[in-house]
Amino acid sequence: METVSAATTVWTRDAVKGEKRDLWTAMKRGFRCRCPRCGEGKLFRAFLKTADNCSVCGLDFTPHRADDLPAYLVIVVVGHIVVPAVLWIETNYSPAVWLQLSIYLPLTFFMSLLLLQPVKGGVVGFQWALRMHGFDENAPSDIPPV
Ligand SMILES: [Zn+2]
Question: What is the pTM of this model?
Answer without folding.
Answer: 0.83
